[in-house]
Amino acid sequence: MKFKLALVSAALMSCITANAAEPTNEELRQLIDAQQKEINELKESVKKADKKAEASVEAAEKSMNNSASSKLSFGGYGELHYNNIEDKESIDFHRFVTFMGYQFTDSIRFFSELELEHSLSGDGKPGEVELEQAYVEIDVTDATSIKSGLFLVPVGILNETHEPPTFYGVERNPIEKNIIPTTWWEAGAGVTSKLAEGLTADFAIHSGLEVPNDAGVYDFSIRSGRQKVAKANADSFAYTARIKYTAIPGLELAASVQHQTDLTQGVLNADANLYTAHAIYNVDGFGIRALYAGWDIDSAEAEMNGQDKQDGFFVEPSYRFNDEFGIFARYSVWDNAAGNSSINTEMKQSNVGFNYWPHENVVFKFDLENRSGAQDGNGFNLGVGYQF
Asked: How many helices and strands, by DSSP H and E, does the chain display?
């Protein structure tokens, strides 16, 4: 381009300075027009080069930003409950939870979960701020991964998947509260392996429960034994194994066993085993969930209170009419002192209600509740929940 412009300029100057006859006005005009055309072409070429360079820089910056952001994941869930049982009314933002994860490589990732319970924490306040998950997971092979850190114990239905839009009922079922102390997390290491298509096995070694001691007397209430990995006593570790079958669409079958050498963390040698089994089946809108869980505690102190046997089950049929509306009924029976034959400590609870999903990740809930047995009560529950 520069060479062509120089030729035009040279031609113009030679016409002016040469001894030959002076160029006509028409010839001068043509030469000037040619030069101007070359100048305009040069300007356009420079503009295109600048735009191309700018686009290249923007593309590089976008690529760098996308690369970083694609490794970071963020999400969460929450639920608000209104409970009216035996004229005792309460409203509570029960859970506000945030997830955060990071993908270091295709095979190494980090996941965490931070929760605020009951909206407000601090001295004399009802809530707690809890770190429920924080672990690193590594894929060893295409079929096997290992993880280490603070993670959810692989037992039951809700302990690992408990976001409000994923289950019926305002409150979680009482079996996975009083027998399996959901939400239940511990610290340690675990391995998950795909044995065959739709068949997986989990095994974990982790911290264990420590049931409370009041003036030298132990209360073997399982839920109150959660240490939540807060400077937890680690004298007695626990071992959990689970096998899960999902090869048939809509069907999930799973069973787990946990062994802990001492629920009192080195004081009474209270050996304990937890057994669970559950089934989930969904087809053409119809669904059913059923779960059994039971503790067998080998301790004279636990036997004195009848707490050496603690178990329960629930059955929950449901029907989902469409993506937005579903109904359910749940019947639960549990006993945290099933070994006590002198008094009735068995609890029974029935819930009937519906879920409304205006969006797949947003749910409004209502259910009627009836309690009988060791603790009577009737009423209803309302709730709203979300996940993202």
From this structure: 4, 18
| 101-120 per-position pLDDT tens digit | 999 999 999 999 999 999 99
Identify the DSSP state of 70.
H
Total residues found in the chain within this entry: 388
113 membership: H or E segment, kind and range: strand 108-117
Closest alpha carbon to 220 in 153, 309, 294 = 309
Spatial contact of 93 and 78, defined as CB atoms under 8 Å apart = yes
What the block records as the tokens of 330 is: 């749940």
Distance CA 244, CA 199 (A): 6
Cα-flanking dihedrals φ and ψ of residue 360, to 5°?
-60, -20
Q: Residue 112 has which token pair? A: 């965490």
Neighbour tally for 171: CB within 10 Å: 17
Taking only the tens place, the pLDDT of each residue in 319-376 is 999 999 999 999 999 999 999 888 889 999 999 999 999 999 999 999 999 999 888 8
pLDDT of residue 28: 65
Q: Could you state, in order of their start, the residue ranges of all structural domains in the chain?
A: 2-60, 140-387
Rounded Cα–Cα distance for residues 218 and 333 (Å): 25
User: Rounded CA gap, 92 and 357, in Å?
Assistant: 21
CATH 2.40.160.10 fits 140-387, yes or no: yes
In angstroms, the CA 264 to CA 169 distance is 34
